[in-house]
Amino acid sequence: MTPMNPLQTSQDLNVLVVMESKLFVPFSCILFLSSFMLPVLSRVHDPHLRPNGLSGNNTKPSPFGFLKAMQGCRKGDTQKGIRDLKLYLARFGYLNYQKNPNVTDLEEDHFDEELEVAIKSYQVFYHLNATGTLDGPTVSQMAMPRCGCPDKVTHKHTDHNSLHTVSHYQFLPGTPKWNRGQLTYGFGPSFPTQFMPAVDRAFGKWATASSGYFTFSRAGSYEGADLKISFERGDHGDGYPFNGSGEVLAHAFPPPDGRFHYDADENWVIGAVQGAFDVESLALHEIGHLLGLGHSQFQDAIMWSTFDSGVTKGLSPDDIQGLDTLYGI
Questions:
Q1: 70 is in an annotated binding site
Q2: Is the pTM of this model over 0.85?
């Protein structure tokens, strides 16, 4: 056997060390890059999910943004945007020109007496000074994200009794209600599974509030459910299209229709997260409509029409009293 040359061995070791160091540099770079890219790749993998929630398409300006430019507008003014203001008030039950053909057309950008009366009615509903002008507090209230159901259903603009009002809570027009207490609900095919337990809890809270009068259970199929819950976007075929983030968050239909739609363009989460809306709080509100309750004039009620992002909300005594009165519980 040929003996090993110590010098040669040392040289070989030096070569190995150099080779290993050269191998280590790209390998360490790979580790560094992979650790940097991992969160990026995870975001690319599912771009709609945020921690605990669902991110909508909130790149467009708020549909209510036109209101800020109109602050200070009053009777007699002609200004671009007044037509949109009329449509806003008509949508939420304060204005109906079709019942009175002798007034300015809904399409015109003119602030007429009919519009002034409608704004006063809105201001009274939201406990604002009834000035009839589009003042700062009124603009701020109108610009709030809200439920898409009307506050009132106006047969004539002066008819303030179109909703049955007791205390702060209200019933929907015609006082629709279910003729039974056992109801089923189902989720649409694309409903995010992580949000289903929050809606389950909302149904449970209404069942408890009804002292057992109502029981809610998941149906075997979405099509066969009494109450159908889904995420929708834009014009989704029910006659009440969503139009992007920052305006209408959700809407529901009275008994016995049973449809309840979230706007998929909003940012939805479970719990209080800044810049997003709580799935359970909105479910509590819309279930109230499904049962026949209208919007309350009591700000602490779940049936108050507007919602802040980053907060949660629960049932109030006003909500429970409304349900008890409607169903004689």
A1: no
A2: no
